[in-house]
Amino acid sequence: MNQLENIHTIQSTPTLIQTDTLRAEVITAWTQLQMQQPLVHCITNSVAANYAANVLLAAGASPAMIDNPFEAESFANIAAALSINLGTPTSEQMQAIKIAAQTVTAKSTPWVLDPVGYGAFLKWRSAMVDELLLLHPTIIRGNASEISGLAGNQVQSKGVDSSIASHEVYQQAIPLLAHCECVAISGESDFILSKEHNAVIQVNGGSDLQPKITATGCALGALIAAYSAVSTPTIATLSAHVHFAIAGKLAFSKAQSVGSFNVAFLDAIYELNAETIQQCADFEILNIE
Questions:
Q1: For residue 182, what are the domain limits?
Q2: 213 within some domain
Q3: Mean pLDDT across 189-206
Q4: How far is residue 85's CA from residue 228's CA, in Å, rounded to a whole number?
Q5: 2 Rama class: left (phi>0) / alpha (psi -120 to 50) / beta
Q6: Tens of pLDDT along 241-278?
Q7: 34-70 as b/e, with b when 16 or more CB fall inside 10 Å?
Q8: Are 145 and 155 within 8 A, CB to CB?
Q9: 132-190: per-residue pLDDT in tens?
């Protein structure tokens, strides 16, 4: 995307939110997720579908992987949230994506856009992402290269993997708040830009083995959607990232090889509780420079 209209800027003013307040709201969101078990409509890529569904089930949500144009509208009408991932788009899936996004936008249902592979080298999917931005997704989530490219910067990526660090990008991503309520950037630390709170939240934790597991980023986008069904965009985005960061850290304490870590990570997603969030959530609120 080369041009952004109605660019929103975050002012360099002290934030009024506190980490203790946010931590309490994350615990509330987690509790509501367990109670409501929201139905999440996922249109995701073929590599990620099974893994994303298992993560949502482990976290307490109810996933449905409906990605054909003949059912997209009817299912989007009953879903509590929508997650759109452009990882391996087909012609029919692209139709379903557009139909579902238009449907939830008309109903004011929260939805997450994960612009996998956005950039000049994959023009077809990138053109669809540009169209979807006009529908104003609730939350945009991606790696540093994707978010930087989406904000109008020329980025050399490694396929669909990021070639730059998340901390290098969050300032560049501020203009994207003209199109959504939150922007989430995944990396060694995750950065969440909140329009509501006029702030950036840095989430720490996790494990360096997470990027070695296929579809962890895609599953994170789906989990953000699940939380968005029970909370505000900022708290939903923060809750999903905290959930993943704690699970990654706890899983690595039990398993240091990729295969066993993968199992331990899914277990940790399932075993998270309010006490663990209170003790282990590691995030800070940053001022915009």
A1: 19-152+170-287
A2: yes
A3: 94
A4: 16
A5: alpha
A6: 999 999 999 999 999 999 999 999 999 999 999 999 99
A7: eeebbbbbbbbbebbbebbbbbbebbbbbbbbbbebe
A8: yes
A9: 999 999 999 999 989 999 998 755 554 444 456 567 788 889 999 999 999 999 988 99
Sign of the Cα torsion 69, 231, 204, 173 reads positive
> In the structure, what pLDDT confidence band is assigned to residue 289 with cuts at 50, 70 and 90?
low
Q: Are strands 39-43 and 62-64 parallel, antiparallel or unpaired?
A: parallel
Binding site: which residues?
65, 141, 186, 215
Tokens, residue 100: 């579902």
Binding-site positions for ATP read: 141, 186
Alpha carbon of 142 to those of 160, 198, 216, 272, 289: distances in Å? 10, 20, 11, 24, 22
Per the annotation, binding residues for substrate are 65, 215
Mean pLDDT on 101-126 = 95
Angle at which helices 233-254 and 258-271 cross, to 10°:
130
Count of structural domains within the chain: 1
Q: Residue 98 belongs to a domain with what CATH number?
A: 3.40.1190.20
